Amino acid sequence: MTHDLLTLNQGAVGKVCAIDAGRFATRRLYEMGFNIGAPVKVVKNDAGPVIVSLAGNKVALGRGLAGKIRLETGR
Amino acid sequence: MKATVHKEAVRVRSGTIALVGNPNSGKTTFFNALTGSNQHVGNWPGVTVEKKVGSFTYEGERYRVVDLPGTYSLGAFSEDEVVARQFVLTGDADVIIDVVDASNIERNLYLATQLLEMGKKVVIALNMVDEAARRKIKLDPEGLSKKLGVPVIPTVAARGRGIDDVIKAAIGLIKQDVVVENPVRYPKTVQHHIDEVATTLEGTDLPYPIRWAALKVVEGDEEIINMVGKYCAASGLQDFAQRYNGSHTGESFELDIIDARYNFAHRVTEGAVQRPKEEVVTFTDKVDKIVTHKYLGIPIFAAIMLVVFQLTFEVGEEILGEFAVDIVEWLGDMAATFLAYISAPGWFISFMTEGVFNGVGAVVEFVPLILVLYLLLGFLEDSGYMARAAYVWDDLMRRLGLQGKAFISLIIGFGCNVPGIMSARTLDNRKDRMITTLINPFMSCGAKIPIYSVFIAAFFPRHGGLLLFAIYALGIVIGLIMAKVFNKTLFKGESSHFIMELPPYRMPTVRNVFRNMWDNVYGFLQRAGTTIFMVITLLWVLAVLPVSAEPYSQASILGRIGAFIAPLFRPAGFGTWQESVALFAGIPAKEAVVGTLGMLYAGQYVEEGTLLVNALKLHFTPLTALAYMVMTLLYTPCIATLSTVAKETNSIKWPVFMALYTFAIGWGLAVVVFQVGSLLGFS
């Protein structure tokens, strides 16, 4: 199953399977470690930006951007 | 004898080392550990990116260290990246030390991979291995080194651990002749394109390694493509290069190439880096639960800032400040006695005591306050909290048409608006940059603190910290309102995306915090010795001329100029010529406001003690003091800020606009404070 990051709750884990953003944003995401296949864990997703953990390192993503990242959750 | 020999030997520079690394990798700490106090800060030519250069001596030989801006990549997206890349490519670095965060190796290796693609000699400082150990990450530096083909040395820069080994490895590489092969394997089609471009570039006098340039062309790197276009125009390569510019044709291998780099990084870390199955719940996780909380986040930020200002005031002013005042007064008395003793001319004595000691001295007395403020702000910045502040403000900033990162520029503006405005360039779109720039002057900078403190000391001594906090808060509120206004009028559209690392909380090192504090205090003292001194001298001359007029009276040239402007400020309650002149003296540098008041007011009341505070009590009321503080908070920023705006926006229109609109807002609000206050019966 693939989900966009915004719909996932705290604690959910998955692998990046697609990024649906413009060239600039996609490149930034890739360089920050959100390349295809990267394992991501949702740390916080309530109000404000989503916080995810990439191998234990936290990155905050604006909600607009988070909505453009699709994760394969294996469920 | 031995010392002389040593000195002779170190005069020769034996090599240059460039320092690169991701933001938050501990690069600055590493630089400080490497160079100690042998460093200076300047700018890269043509841009306002900060350039830090230092040096160290090893076995009698001296090496230069250039600290490049912290970046995630060496692309062409930001000025920081371009500066770093340009230096790595064409600078005179003999070897590069890449500072890598040991807990975050894969992403950090992405940058290292780009250095290897360039064919550079690299030493990897695997930094903060202690933190990695706490997070139960097992590292095998030798295994990493073997797979990467470069030295990998574990370090803890904050404790000075491993620094010598890195130096040894780096110097070893300088003296060795090694050819660095690009270790990255690209997909077949990509490799085919790279080969094709490389063949075509062969023989041109492009100032870069051919295969690297070919790779960048295929990756769609606009800067390199343009360069290739420039150098190869004759051979008709331009169209060929444009082919890979993804935004034009859609044929892009950009992401394939990034993937290839990550694949390489994964191959390197496989087996050499072992992460625990379950992530260790760290101190950072626990703290973040609270400080990034949906409802608590902003109140906690406000509380932290309140503590910062309260401490600044209590320690910087009440305790250390008194001490500084005494020293300046003592020096002033000594100088006066000495000058009288050597029978210096009267005008010179008057210049020294009234101009220099009452004017410049009034500014220098605030050094302790600025010391404490920068100590605290530096501590917050190095601890990692600022990234959380940006996080909690993102939601609100977004409603005002900005994003969380813009808030960091505003916080930096609290120190000084110049770096605050410069940091706006890390924002991705023009709208965000422009709005953040235009509202930055409302973030009350360190130079304005003397103004507030002198008025607080005179009129509100019991509520110092609170009032200082309120002033700063008013600046933020006005700034945010103006952001909304600009967003609805001058700059419409969406804010850029927010993406930011939240680094683990770290205990700031004493060295870094003090270094940062000293740089700022030094800048302050430097301004006191130059700009402020010149402004005060000029004003003193205008205040004692013409000779026929009573010095410091309205009959002086300065008095006449002031009296001409003064009516403008009468609705705001501070309509004397001295107060008007002081406001204008603040445009070259804000510290000069207090300096000018000190010279014009305190100069007349020497018999009652030189303290400007006593003089102000005679000329202001609590209400007019408040209006004056509001005016100085908001009105036209200093020349340095305006010229930075000119440089950053590459126009004269925006700094002029900024100077005028901030003046209008400052004046308007000061009038409101005075008029409403009067109506309510305050005085």
Summarize the structure in words.
The complex is a heterodimer of chains A (75) and B (683). Chain A has one domain: Ferrous iron transport protein A (FeoA) (SH3 type barrels). Chain A is 17% helix and 40% strand. Chain A has two helices and six strands; from the N terminus they run ββαβββαβ. Chain A has helices spanning 23-31, 63-66; strands at residues 2-4, 13-19, 39-44, 50-54, 57-61, 69-72. Chain A has a six-stranded antiparallel beta sheet. The model of chain A has no long low-confidence stretch (mean pLDDT 88). By secondary structure, chain B is an alpha/beta fold. Chain B folds into three domains: 2-174, Rossmann fold (3-Layer(aba) Sandwich), CATH 3.40.50; 188-274, Helix Hairpins; 299-495 and 510-679, no CATH class. In chain B, the strands form two sheets. In chain B, strands 2-3-4-1-5-6-8 form a seven-stranded mixed beta sheet, sandwiched between helices. In chain B, strand 2 and strand 3 form a beta hairpin. The longest helix of chain B has 45 residues, at 297-341. The termini of chain B are far apart. The model of chain B is unreliable at 1-10 and 605-610 (pLDDT under 50). The A-B interface holds A 21, 23-33, 35-36, 41, 43-44, 46-49, 51, 53-62, 64-65 and B 72-73, 75, 77, 103-104, 106-107, 110, 135, 137, 246-247, 252, 254-255, 258-259, 262, 275, 279-280, 284-285, 288, 292, 294, 297, 387, 390-392, 394-395, 398, 403-404, 428, 497-503.
